[in-house]
Write a structure and sequence with these properties.
The structure is a single chain. The chain is of the alpha/beta class. The chain folds into 2 domains: about 110 residues; about 180 residues, Rossmann fold (3-Layer(aba) Sandwich), CATH 3.40.50.2000. The protein is about 45% helix and about 15% strand. It contains 12 helices and 11 strands. A 6-stranded parallel beta sheet has the order 7-6-5-8-9-10, with helices on both faces. Helix 9 links the parallel strand 9 and strand 10. It is globular, with a radius of gyration of 21 Å.
Length: about 300
C-alpha cells in the first residue's frame, strides 16, 4: 500500500514487480506549479500501480483520462465522535448555553475558507444578534498560512465581529467542539476529496452547511442531509444558517438523515472492508496494469 504523494515507493514496487495499491485522497488544483506536480503524481500512479483506491468519485475522475489500473472508490471510514461535553468550549469562550454557536474544524488555510464564514457573520447577526463562531484548527507551518491566520483575526475586527469569533487552536478531543455547536459550516473554496469534518459533525448530530464542491456532494445530498451552497459566497452561508436556525423541523430532518447516512454508508467497517477487498483482489491476480477498457470504478454507494 502506498499513497499517491510518495511516487518513489510506487515506482520502486513496480520495478521490483511487487503489486502496489495506491491510496489517492487528494484533488489536484488546476493551474499553478502545484498542479503540474500533482499531475505528475497522477501519471506515475497510472503507469505503475496495480490498483488505485480513491477517496471519492471526484478523486477518481482525475484518473479516468488515460489508460491505467483499476479504479476503486472507497470512502474514508468515519468513527462517530463520542463523549463530547457541550460546556467545555462554551465555558472557555464565555458562550452562554442558549447562545447560537457556529463551528468550523480544519487547518487555518485559505483553501478551507474560514474567512468566508467570518464574512457571513455580520449578516447572520442581523437575525441572530448573539451568534458566535468557533474555529478549531491551526495554520500549517508555512508563512502563507500563518499570515492567513493573522488575516482572519484582522478581518473579524474590521467587520465588527471580533467579540464573536473564537480561535480554539488544536483540540485533543474534537468531540467537545461538535457537542458545543448548533450548526457546523464547511466553507471550503477549493474542492475537497471527501470532507471528513462535516461527516463527523453529522454523525455527532450537528446540522451541516457545506460548499458544493469536490467530493462533498457525494457525502451529503442537498436538502436531505445538509444544505450545500456555492463556494466562496458569504451571503449563501448566511442564508443557509438563518434558514436552519429558524426551522426546527428542518434541523431535525437534516440531522436524522445525515447521521443515519454517515453511520451506514461511511462507517469504519465499510471503509476497511473496501480497502481489504481491493488488496485481496490485487494479491489474487498478481498481474499488473489492465487496459483502459478493463478499468473498474467500484464501492460507490447508491443515492
Amino acid at each position: 500500500m502506498a499513497t499517491v504523494t510518495v511516487p518513489s515507493a510506487v515506482v520502486a514496487a513496480r520495478l521490483e514487480k511487487v503489486p502496489v495499491v495506491v491510496d489517492a485522497a487528494e484533488i489536484v488544483r488546476t493551474g499553478g506549479p502545484r498542479s503540474l506536480a500533482g499531475i505528475a503524481l497522477i501519471r506515475t500512479a497510472q503507469r505503475c500501480a496495480s490498483a488505485i483506491v480513491c477517496a471519492s468519485r471526484a478523486v477518481a475522475r482525475q484518473y479516468e483520462d488515460a489508460p491505467g489500473p483499476p479504479l476503486h472508490t472507497v470512502y474514508p471510514g468515519i468513527r462517530p465522535p463520542t463523549g463530547g461535553d457541550r460546556d467545555v468550549l462554551r465555558k472557555r469562550f464565555a458562550i452562554a448555553p442558549d447562545q447560537f454557536c457556529l463551528l468550523q474544524v480544519g487547518n487555518l488555510t485559505r483553501g478551507r475558507g474560514q474567512d468566508v464564514l467570518i464574512r457571513s457573520l455580520p449578516t447572520i447577526r442581523q437575525q441572530i444578534p448573539h451568534a458566535s463562531c468557533v474555529l478549531v484548527g491551526i495554520p500549517h507551518p508555512r508563512a502563507a498560512d500563518r499570515a492567513y491566520a493573522e488575516e482572519l483575526r484582522k478581518l473579524a475586527q474590521r467587520l465588527g465581529v471580533a467579540d464573536a469569533v473564537f480561535f480554539a487552536g488544536y483540540l485533543d478531543h474534537v468531540a467537545d467542539a461538535y457537542a458545543a455547536a448548533d450548526i457546523f459550516v464547511n466553507p471550503v473554496r477549493i474542492p475537497e476529496a471527501f470532507g471528513r469534518a462535516g461527516a463527523e459533525a453529522a454523525a455527532a448530530g450537528v446540522p451541516v452547511i457545506a460548499s458544493n464542491v469536490g467530493g462533498i456532494p457525494e457525502v451529503f445530498r442537498d436538502g436531505r442531509d445538509a444544505l450545500l451552497v456555492p463556494g466562496d459566497e458569504p451571503a449563501a452561508i448566511a442564508n443557509a444558517v438563518q434558514l436552519i436556525a429558524g426551522d426546527a423541523d428542518l434541523r431535525e430532518r437534516l440531522v436524522s438523515s445525515a447521521s443515519s447516512r454517515v453511520r451506514m454508508v461511511f462507517s469504519e467497517d465499510r471503509g476497511v472492508a473496501g480497502f481489504l477487498g481491493v488488496i485481496e483482489r490485487v494479491l489474487s491476480e498478481r498481474e499488473c496494469a489492465p487496459t483502459g477498457s478493463e478499468r473498474l470504478i467500484s464501492g460507490v454507494p447508491t443515492q
